[in-house]
Request: fold
Amino acid sequence: MAEAVVLHPSLRLVGRPLPRHDARDKVAAATAYAADWGMPGMLQATVLRSPYASARIVKLDTGRAAAMPGVAAVLTAKDVPRNTLATDVPGQTTAVGPLRATLHVLATERVRHQGEPVALVAAETLEQARAAAEAIEVQYEPLPGVFDPEAALAPGAPRVHEAGNLLAHWRIARGDSAAAFARAAVIVEGEYTTQFVDAAYLEPESGVAWIDSDGVITIRVSTQVIEHFRDVAEVLQIPQNRVRVIGPYLGGGFGGKEDVTVEVYLGLLALRTGRPVKMVWTRQESLLARAKRHPYRMRYRTGASASGEIVAEQIDLLADAGAYAYLSALVLLYSTVTAAGPYRVPAVEVEARCAYTNNPPTSAMRGFGAMQTVFAYESQMDRIGRALGLDPVEIRRMNALRRGDSLPVGQVLETHVAMPELAERVWAALGPVRPARAAHVKVGRGLACNLQPYGRIVWLHDWSSAWVGFEMDGSLVVRCGVPDVGGGQASSLCQIAAEVLGVGLEQVSVHIGDSALTPLAGTTTASRQLYMSGNAVLKAARELRAQLLAVAAPMLGVKDSALDLLEGAVVADGGRSLPVPDVLRRCAREGVPRSHLAVYHAPAGEPVDLATGSGKVFPDYTFGAHAAEVEIDMETGAVRLVKYVAAHDVGRAINPQSVEGQIQGGAVQGLGGGLLEEVILEEGINLTTSFASYLIPTAADVPDVEALVVESGEGLGPFNARGIGEPPIGPPAAAVANAIADATGVRLTRLPLTPERLARALGLLGKAG
Amino acid sequence: MIRRLVVNGRARELDVLPHQTLLEVLRDTLGIFEVKEGCGEGVCGACTVLLEGRPVSSCLVLALAVRGRAILTVRGLEGEGGLHPLQEAFVKSGAVQCGFCTPGMLLTALAFLEHHPRPTREAIRAALEGNLCRCTGYTKIVDAVLAYARGDEGHG
Reply:
């Protein structure tokens, strides 16, 4: 068995901060992103979008547009063989909404949000395509809309969809919370709201499609999910093996490229015209039309004993799902499962709902519903600590989950929970408190902890596959369908394969992200690729190692257990060795494969009944703690971040430099959502469709992030690694809110924490209007 | 109108329309894809090139207005021996994740360092304010710029 192979006791590559192969390509600008691709005779395509948030299409005439110069195709809903895309939403506790949530590829008689796609145009030039799109005659009859989830669920609200506005509902009830609250010495109640946030990757949605020489529709697209080739086939009503998606290195994803973007449109246009077609969304289009992070309204009631133990919690979550379902029901599930945070709470009630509105759709974004809840549960924790005179570390230490404890949903934590020590470490890392620089400045510190699942929900039966093989000269090839969003997904796989097979990183070539030619690896989402594809590569590499050593053993006259692979050679005890190419030639003669294809299956389970708390929802969790020091200008409400420390237990850091990068980047993205970013909508109309109005953090907005990489040695990934892509985005908003409260005594409960909101709360702007 | 563009020391004669931006001409006419488009309105910095040594957003510059002035893209940084030391510093420091901001970031940093050879971290952050990065959180980018300015070898 491959598992019996003992690795070299001291790891050579895994655990080292090695520079990534893709970084070298990227500094040299050799990496061809989706929009950098071209084909001979390529058309340029654009999307016509609805200017209304809620309207009926009473007339749609493409005649004039289709006759314009250079126009190759104008498509509307009637030209789409199957005009729906579906998302499976299994395991609903309540029978609400469609179990297969659908959305239209192109609008039919109704538009439900501003920016909803209505028609596609392909033309010789982009100018011609845009001119033709403008020439499409569309008459809209505006309809009443609903723009707030609370209002959407009120009786008589305009219906976004026929089946009603309640899209999903999850519920957890554990323990006797009424009795527990009756015993509580202190009860803290709070209502917290979060905003629409955009993924705002630097690379806009883009791709090129062509019909390849074999007749296969081939789409090279910036995507986190090459498996969308199946969706394209379904929409085009052609067999799935007639569509190929190639996923080049992405210019960022953050969940925003998890759902389909341009690939279905490109497939439709390539099939219709028979020519290569390119589509690149503008930044304005991306900000207008792409799915956002869900805004939440979160009501928390938390009871604690006089000594500080949390005894009961009641939580009510309401999320704005926007106009179409996308992944909202699953995002809400993440919120439900993580709603009580990394704490032991014996009695918990969670009610979680999300509702359709005529706002932009909301879907996956880094953190995936486990992020918004951190702002609420960590604000609550701080307030309880203050009410009882316990410092931020102490209140968390008293209540932290431990191995063997269960989450409110009933899932028992089977791996190490690094909770108290992470909080202690980041708090200590802030160092001695410095005095304020001026009389009008106050200094404060805040702490926030979180848990984030890694890996997909267990009843999705997740798997990943990878192929590892030697070439005859001893160089190594890894094939794995992983899309690399920039987190080092591909390079970590190289590091793992090179470790097991005794070659240098420079001897590894990795082929990724091709649905026809690389073994499928599943989505680069849910902090799952290192965990899933890392395990697949590890398994393949170990099997290959065993194959090779079994052939080498008789050549060296020893047992294969006495052999190691080091620096391109099979090495025996006592120093005798054989170059790997010699062994490969023997393999070829003996018919022993020089490669191995492995499939890794994650621990699977059946859907659980959340309400009765019956079991496992996620494979495992990553825990974290962040600490912030802020300076508040008491005359203006301006918040300056002075110091920021973030710690996560990653089990084992395959590449500590990449891990630090995830922690630092995630923390700053979280600070953006905490302090700056907000998609502003007026009756569904987006007022922030530019980077001049949708503000993501610049280098001058944020301090250095000190990343503490903690390795418990426990996790489900390769070499006991845990997922780290999403976890660091959770705590920042709460850490800063807690620091502001520490400095000023004022508790802000609405994100983002803008100077205006703080100034108003400090009474600097007169009475609230 | 036929215009002369000098990109990375190489002169090119090409037909330029009055409304075309330098970014459009570089990417669509000349196939110089190392210049990235992130926003098209001069906010994100991904399309930064050096025009006579000064960083500009090529999406805001009309190609006709360039008038033969020297344009440097990131491909122009590489010397005989391979990558420019600042590029090496970005690799070693882990300053690159998705890499989409990297070409613009490198050029802005280099132009800044030309006049500020001994910068503080704060000064580097201020200089890079016009180049957005959504992946790294900037810490390792500042590390890389500082390491290069100090002439560090084998850092990271």
Q: What stands out?
A: The radius of gyration of chain A is 27 Å. Residues 544 and 596 of chain A are 6 Å apart (CA to CA).
